[in-house]
Design a protein that fits this description.
The structure holds two protein chains of two kinds. Chain A is mostly beta strands. Chain A contains three helices and 17 strands. In chain A, helix 1 crosses helix 2. In chain B, strand 9 (164-168), helix 6 and strand 10 form a beta-alpha-beta unit. In chain B, helix 4 (115-129) packs across helix 5 (146-160) and helix 5 (146-160) runs parallel beside helix 6. The relative contact order of chain B is 0.15. The chains are: A mainly beta, B alpha/beta. Chains A and B meet through helix 1 and helix 2 of A and helix 2, strand 7 and helix 3 of B.
């Protein structure tokens, strides 16, 4: 359901039209759609109950601040698609005890986009998975910062950021994983990969781990590299033209993000976005 | 294909010359067994014919039906009917096997294959290779066992119907049953007038696919030619007899003993300083 236009017994709307606040309480699984809305400066979601809340969000020319408060035992699946450029999206996700947050962001759009995503794992056993796929072509500048702060025991976070860079495109990933004092037995993992096609691409992957507690698990990996020549040879040796082979490999790099989206029209727009870029 | 003619082929890899004047002609319906000790250029020959950019041709020619193969891109060579079943097929994460196979099949067609027709072709080839249809939805070779990868190579050969299939140690990593499936697939393609250039270290595969000719590559050149009797002789006696009977010294890679025997970095440094 469209969160701005439709009503639902699970949702109470507060605040004014530029700073809306939604209280969502559900013990059933529900799906929400947050369409792009340029009148909004900040949106707040307070999510309670034991049901899974699936949120699909599209961003086009937006500068939006998000606050997502996930209360005890709540589960959130959040899929974000960037379409047109000049998106400056800020997210602060605050997680209480026994909560789950699964986030996915796909940015195959043309233009410049900035993401500042911060997740605070404030309650014990809070668990979060984050996946991002981003394509940068022509003169696109994409800056993506993703941070996890572990503030309680037994918290878990995993971040996967993937990028493909072509022409004079630029991608910068900043991944911060911080296990703070007191967050014993927590685990944090991050992985960043950027595939670079052309000599004028700019690609940066900066992983940062701040560990201030013992008895924790932490790992990071960052790779910036060119397309594997052996893969190209393998595909072309079957008669596939080099351009098609590159496209298959690139799609293979970006497509896994699509599994987090199940809305046909959004998936179609994303495919169009990718197809138009080669 | 009418014929593939290789003349005086010299090939280098990273500045080191591996092939030192190979002459070979392959005609339709021929199955050529390519034997030879490790490191003497068998795989290099196959990879060069297919156009692997790591192998640099410094001299000589490869002509396919009057056309210069060395001027063709890799994909053009494949569309002209050349196929290489690789010794170590690449794992390509993210690329779904079915999408890859479809792109390969469509590369040879003017109009794209219909979904149903494609499904039937995959189903038939998968059955022959005893590969589960689920594999079509997995990423290309990723997480496949050694044997599964080899069977997937042969599945591709069945789908693409090449004129000249070059198979590089396709029998390594296969269990006894899988070896029979591979041999049956080769025999099926042999019926289509196709030619084969097959590298194997084992007589068993050759017995099943009945080569019309056997050649032995030594020191980057073809040193001996013969028939099945040559394969049998190598299977029982190895390659040493070539040295005595033909007077060809078989080159061996020299190994630096210091690098091999000392495993402690500090010790290595001390030795190199001396």
């Amino acid at each position: 359901m469209n969160i701005f236009e439709e009503t639902n017994p699970y949702i109470v709307k507060k605040g004014d039209s530029s700073l809306p606040i939604f209280d969502i309480t559900s013990n059933d699984n529900i799906s929400l759609f947050i369409p792009s809305n340029s009148n909004i400066k900040k949106i707040t979601l307070n999510i309670k109950g034991s049901g899974q809340v699936s949120i699909l969000e599209t961003c086009e020319n937006n500068i939006i601040d998000h606050e997502i408060n996930i209360f005890e035992n709540a589960k959130v699946h959040h899929s974000i698609a960037f379409f047109k450029d000049n998106n400056e999206a800020k997210y602060a996700v605050n997680m209480e005890k026994n909560t789950e947050y699964q986030g996915a962001l796909a940015d195959f759009s043309k233009g410049n986009n900035t993401l500042d995503f911060v997740c605070n794992l404030n309650g014990e056993y809070a668990k979060s998975n984050w996946n991002l796929a981003c394509l940068s072509c022509e003169n696109d500048v994409k800056k993506m910062s993703v941070s996890f702060f572990h503030n309680a025991k037994h918290t878990y976070a995993k971040m996967e950021n993937y990028g493909v860079c072509e022409d004079e495109g630029s991608i910068e990933f900043l991944g911060t994983s911080s296990i703070n004092k007191g967050a014993k037995s927590s685990a944090t993992h991050q992985n960043a990969k950027i595939m670079v096609f052309d000599p004028k691409c700019k690609a940066k992957a900066n992983p940062v781990l701040c560990i201030d507690e013992n008895d924790v698990e932490a790992s990071h990996a960052a790779v910036v590299g060119q397309i594997n020549e052996d893969h190209i040879f393998y595909l072309t040796s079957r008669g596939i033209e080099e351009e098609t082979a590159k496209k298959l490999i690139t799609l293979g790099y970006l497509n896994p993000i699509l599994r987090f989206f199940n809305d046909e029209s959004v998936l179609e727009r994303m495919s169009e976005n990718i197809d138009g870029r080669f | 294909m009418k014929e593939l003619i290789i003349k005086d082929l010299h090939v280098s890899v990273e500045g080191k010359e591996i092939l030192k004047g190979v002459n070979l002609t392959i005609k339709p319906n021929e199955t050529v067994a390519l034997l030879g000790p490790n490191g003497h250029g068998k795989s290099t020959l196959l990879a060069t014919i297919m156009g692997n950019p790591k192998y640099v041709v410094t001299k000589g020619s490869i002509i396919l039906d009057g056309e210069d193969v060395l001027k063709m891109k890799v994909d053009e060579r494949a569309r002209k009917g050349l196929f290489l079943g690789m010794q170590y097929p690449s794992e390509v994460p993210g690329v779904v096997n079915a999408d890859f196979l479809k792109a390969a099949v469509n590369a040879r067609r003017e109009t794209p294959i219909k979904l149903f027709e494609f499904y039937r072709a995959i189903e038939s080839a998968s059955k022959k290779m005893h590969i589960s249809m689920d594999m079509a939805q997995r990423f290309l070779n990723e997480g496949f066992s050694g044997g599964e990868k080899k069977r997937n190579e042969i599945l591709q050969m069945l789908l693409l119907k090449p004129d000249l299939a070059m198979l590089d140690e396709i029998d390594s990593g296969l269990d006894v049953d899988a070896l029979v499936y591979v041999a049956d697939a080769i025999k099926e393609v042999q019926q289509t007038n196709a030619s084969f250039l097959v590298i194997s270290h084992y007589e068993k595969l050759y017995q099943m696919i009945c080569p019309t000719r056997a050649i032995v590559m030594i020191n980057g050149k073809i040193a001996v030619e013969g028939g099945m009797e040559l394969i049998n002789k190598i299977d029982t006696q190895g390659y040493e007899w070539i040295k005595y009977e033909l007077g060809i010294e078989i080159e061996k890679d020299e190994v630096d003993m210091n690098k091999q025997s000392i495993g402690v970095c500090a010790t290595k440094e001390i030795i190199s300083k001396k």
